[in-house]
Design goal:
alpha+beta, Heat Shock Protein 90, Ribosomal Protein S5, domain 2, Rossmann fold, 9-stranded mixed beta sheet, 22 helices, elongated
Length: about 625
């Protein structure tokens, strides 16, 4: 038996590893299985080069939990190590087995090197985060006198022992003696959870425990002539070692992408709208499949669905800051060996390769959307309502994406017709220019509640956009900064004559003196702190009284809601509205001429409540009183 000290610069290396190197203890299993995969990949590479003479046999990596012995074993059948290699790769932390391997075979291509780079370095020491004692039992693939199996052991201090072992099979066992305060890592459910999370798509099969399956009994039928099945226990293989994103898109059908989506999200029962298959090898390596889900109103629910991998090893599903913000609404998988595995998210966000990858993905997404729009506009329009939030999010938050998206982003009007930005401008610019030569885009946010306002606009042959999405308020503000000579006005922000002011006013049937006479009668029945009475000379068929909230005030209130309260320390803005009195409606003239004060008040109150009702502002006791009064009038 040989004893020695690990070649470290400080006696406190293990506490540092335990406390600072890895923020999350569960990472140890990912690291050790990654090592096992690397050792197996190295063996396969050596065999392909003719440097391994034996049959490779079954290369499945096994994970074995023994609660009684309090051990967790990771067993591979890869290259294995000699005593000298253990001393070099395990005891001398400064050296990396993977780096040594790449140097030795530096004539290999970069892609092949990336496939075989291992983590024989600090990754192994993550084992001490959960263990009191760690053993390595290893037998090298090499032949010759100095290639006996070896047994290394360390108790979490720099002291170790190394001796011969009677291990017969090629490969390495890492045996962790799990410490008492980490014994959750001996529970089958916990190990299964971690393996599924980190090892789901590793390129070498990972086996843990057994599972029961139904197996057809050949040659046997039941009395009804049906096949007979029996229950059999088989090894449980955790991973899909040949995931869809590693395959060529030309070899795949739509059904394959649908099946893979269900594999990624077994609890998501809605089919995605479409997908993008990424396959880039220059100027960086990137593969992956991204899916466009049907987006709901709650954006937060949609996030954290992209899984980020490095050489099929899971890195994170929290990709904000790593991919553009709007892309976090997509689902799917991204895999790149250029993404470092053992670094913090903040490091990833500032990594140059990650930024390049991020920009490339945004470009590919725009390419895909533009391609669908150009080749099948009808299909694109059918999906617009489901992908609109995603595209708008991108246009608001990413300048380059905005420039690309103007080619396929759509406006939808209240008749359900779709227009590109250029098409819509041509559609309305002749009819909807105001006296200042600005094109007015009318829009509605609540089609049912704003029906009468929409109809008033249509009666004048104006077009109204449907802008009822969760991001549409922000989008309108952004578009007004981008589109020249265009302003957006909500269809109920004022009378239609004021919204598109053409200096063509109807004469008023009430002169100023008459308006001043009726104004106090109306003000007596309204909340004067909330409503300002204004007179407009509208068509006789227009409502006698209507309520509007100016575009400016409504947008200020929307900003206030977004900010979560008062603006700039001034307190919450008051709710203010205009009470528009149509001086040409016969009912207004009737109130003016009515000499019975009670009759006047009753008519004003009824018309005022109807105007409130049209804006969903009549509630509680006022609504109840209105209903009683209405029944009284019918009687």
């Amino acid at each position: 038996m040989q004893k020695g000290k690990i070649n470290v610069q400080t006696e406190d290396i293990f506490p540092i590893i335990k406390k600072f190197l890895y923020s999350d203890h569960e990472i140890f299993l990912r690291e050790l299985i990654s090592n096992a995969v690397d050792a197996t990949q190295k063996l396969k590479t050596l065999a392909s080069m003719g440097k391994v003479k034996d049959e490779l046999g079954d290369l499945t990596i096994e994970v074995i939990a023994d609660k009684k012995a309090k051990t967790l074993t990771i067993r591979d059948k890869g290259v294995g190590m000699t005593a000298d290699e253990i001393d070099k790769y395990i005891n001398q932390i400064a050296f990396s087995g993977a780096e040594e391997f790449v140097k030795k075979f530096k004539n290999k291509s970069e892609a092949e090197q990336n496939a075989i780079i291992g983590h024989f370095g600090l990754g192994f020491y993550s084992a001490f985060m959960v263990s009191d004692n760690v053993e390595i039992i290893s037998k090298t693939y090499k032949k010759g006198g100095a290639t006996k199996a070896v047994h290394w052991q360390c108790d979490g201090s720099p002291d170790f022992t190394i001796e011969d072992s009677d291990k017969k099979e090629r490969g390495t066992d890492i045996i962790l003696h799990i410490s008492d305060d980490e014994k959750e890592f001996l529970e089958e459910s916990k190990i299964l959870e971690l393996l599924t999370k980190y090892s789901k798509f590793l390129p070498i099969p990972i086996q843990f425990g057994k599972e029961k399956n139904q197996e057809k009994v050949e040659g046997e039928k039941d009395k009804d002539g049906n096949d007979v099945y029996k229950e059999v226990e088989t090894d449980r293989i955790i991973n899909n070692s040949d995931p869809l994103w590693k395959k060529s898109p030309t070899d795949l059908k739509d059904e394959d992408y649908s099946n893979f989506y269900r594999e990624l999200y077994p609890m998501n029962f809605e089919e995605p709208l479409f997908h993008i298959h990424l396959n880039v090898d220059y100027p960086f390596n990137l593969t992956g499949v991204l899916y466009f889900p049907k987006l709901k109103k709650n954006l937060e629910v949609q996030k954290d669905k992209i899984q980020l991998y490095s050489n099929q090893v899971f890195v994170t599903d929290s990709v904000e800051g790593i991919v553009p913000e709007f892309l976090t609404l997509l689902h799917g998988v991204l895999d790149s060996p250029d993404i470092p595995l053992n670094v913090s998210r903040s490091y990833l966000q500032s990594d140059r390769n990650v930024k390049k990858i991020s920009n490339h993905i945004a470009k590919k997404v725009a390419d895909k959307l533009e391609d669908i729009f150009k080749n099948n506009r009808e299909e694109f329009e059918k999906k617009w309502d489901d992908i609109k939030v995603f595209i708008i999010y991108g246009m608001i938050s990413d300048e380059k994406f905005y420039e690309r998206a103007t080619k396929f982003a759509l406006f939808k009007n209240t008749d359900g017709k779709y227009f590109t930005f250029d098409e819509y401008k041509k559609h309305v610019e002749a009819a909807q220019k105001d006296k200042d030569k600005k094109i007015v885009y009318l829009y509605a946010t609540e089609l049912d509640e704003q029906y009468s306002y929409i109809q008033a606009a249509k009666d004048r042959a104006y077009d109204v956009l449907e802008m009822d999405g969760v991001l549409d308020n922000h989008f309108i503000n952004a578009l007004e900064q981008k589109l020249t000579d265009v302003q957006f006005k909500r269809v109920d922000a004022d009378t239609i004559e004021k919204l598109i002011d053409k200096d063509e006013k109807l004469p008023s049937k009430l002169d100023e003196k008459q308006q001043e006479a009726i104004k106090p009668v109306i003000e007596k029945n309204i909340n004067k702190t909330k409503f300002s009475v204004v007179f407009e000379s509208l068509s006789e068929t227009e409502a006698p009284i209507m309520i509007t909230q100016s575009e400016f005030m409504r947008r200020m209130k929307d900003m206030e809601k977004l900010g979560g309260g008062g603006m700039m320390g001034m307190g919450a803005l008051p709710e203010t509205y205009n009470l528009v009195v149509n001086s040409n409606n016969p009912l207004i003239t009737d109130i003016l001429e009515d000499k019975d004060e009670n009759s006047q008040q009753e008519k004003v109150k009824q018309m005022y409540d109807l105007a409130l009702l049209a804006q969903s502002l009549l509630k509680g006791k006022d609504l109840s009183d209105f209903i009683k009064r209405s029944f009284g009038l019918i009687k």
